[in-house]
């Protein structure tokens, strides 16, 4: 049986060698690696190639594109040259923007971010949404899938509602989860465990610091942590 759980490891570091080491020591247990703005603005396309050339790691390129359709189409086409598995755009960029990204990068799973999980209900209203986070995120997910997005990023608390709205084909990816060993140990009250998020309808969970904080130079501890969290998901 595979030891790789549907985990997307958030490789949030501006140290290229550290990124490579995290990936090398966790790839037995993790299916996808997320390289975001912190990584990309330090190392650019060459940095992504440096990660992918020596591994068959799938990449979640988290650039959260948000611009006019023509600009996003060109950006998505450029990003596609790096062969990421997922590429993120903001769903609030609108249906035409999402369609443009899908058309420009047909081999990449265009992944629409609904509402950042860091926003409170007050923040959601203050930026102009007229409904609460749950309903606004669900509407955005429907808009994005109608425009051709293959995947949606949302809070674990919105997963069940969004799964119900978009059907079974669309991939749902959720950050903001905390493994069993950490629940109650920090200030995250509105959270779920990775296994709960998957039961609620998510296909992948994004996990960063719960795994990467175990890093020490031998790599043994980060591998152990990834294995434990992978087992927690696969055995649930
Ligand atoms: O908190 P953690 O280190 O597990 O975060 C992993 C990734 O998930 C980060 O790269 C961040 O972009 C994203 N995240 C999020 N919403 C949260 C917490 C984290 O989108 N509430």
What do you see in this structure?
This protein has ten helices and eight strands. The chain has 236 residues and is of the alpha/beta class. It has a single domain, classed as Aldolase class I (TIM Barrel, Alpha-Beta Barrel). It has an eight-stranded parallel barrel with strand order 1-2-3-4-5-6-7-8, surrounded by six helices. Strand 1 (5-10), helix 1 and strand 2 (30-36) form a beta-alpha-beta unit. Helix 6 (133-146) runs parallel beside helix 7. Cytidine-5'-monophosphate is lined by residues 10, 12, 36, 117-118, 175-176, 206-210. The site of cytidine-5'-monophosphate has 12 residues, from strand 8 and helix 9.
Task: List its salient traits.
TIM Barrel, 10 helices, 236 residues, binds cytidine-5'-monophosphate, 8 strands, 8-stranded parallel β-barrel
Short summary of the structure?
This protein has 236 residues and is of the alpha/beta class. 43% of the residues lie in helices and 18% in strands.
Strand order in the sheet with the most strands: 1-2-3-4-5-6-7-8
Kindly provide the name of the CATH class: Alpha Beta
CATH topology: TIM Barrel
CATH superfamily: Aldolase class I
Q: What is the helix content?
A: 40-55%
The unique ligands bound to this protein are:
cytidine-5'-monophosphate
Question: What shape does the CA trace take?
Answer: globular
Distance N terminus to C terminus? 14 Å
Spans of at least 5 consecutive residues whose pLDDT stays below 50 are none
Name the structural class.
Answer: alpha/beta
Average pLDDT metric: 94
Number of helix segments? 10
Radius of gyration: 17 Å
Total E-strand runs:
8
CATH architectural arrangement = Alpha-Beta Barrel
Number of domains: 1
């Amino acid at each position: 049986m595979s030891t790789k759980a549907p985990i997307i490891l958030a490789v949030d570091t501006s140290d290229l060698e550290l990124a490579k080491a995290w990936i090398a020591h966790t790839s037995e247990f993790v299916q996808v690696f997320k390289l975001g703005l912190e990584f990309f603005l330090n190392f650019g396309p060459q940095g992504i190639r440096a990660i992918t050339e020596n591994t068959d790691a799938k990449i979640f390129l988290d650039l959260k594109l948000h611009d006019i359709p023509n600009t996003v189409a060109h950006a998505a086409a450029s990003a596609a040259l790096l062969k990421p598995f997922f590429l993120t755009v903001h769903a609030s960029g609108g249906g035409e923007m999402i369609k443009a990204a899908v058309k420009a990068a047909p081999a990449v799973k265009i992944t629409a971010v609904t509402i950042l999980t860091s926003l409170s209900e007050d923040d959601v209203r203050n930026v102009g949404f007229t409904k609460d986070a749950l309903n606004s995120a669900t509407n955005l997910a429907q808009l994005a899938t109608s425009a051709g997005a293959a995947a949606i990023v949302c809070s674990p608390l919105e997963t069940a509602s969004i799964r119900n709205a978009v059907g079974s084909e669309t991939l749902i990816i959720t950050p903001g989860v905390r493994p069993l060993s950490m629940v109650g140990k920090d200030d995250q009250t509105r959270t779920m465990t990775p296994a709960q998020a998957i039961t609620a309808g998510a296909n992948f969970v994004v996990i960063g610091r719960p795994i990467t904080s175990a890093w020490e130079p031998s790599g043994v501890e980060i591998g152990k942590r990834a294995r434990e969290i992978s087992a927690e998901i696969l055995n649930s």
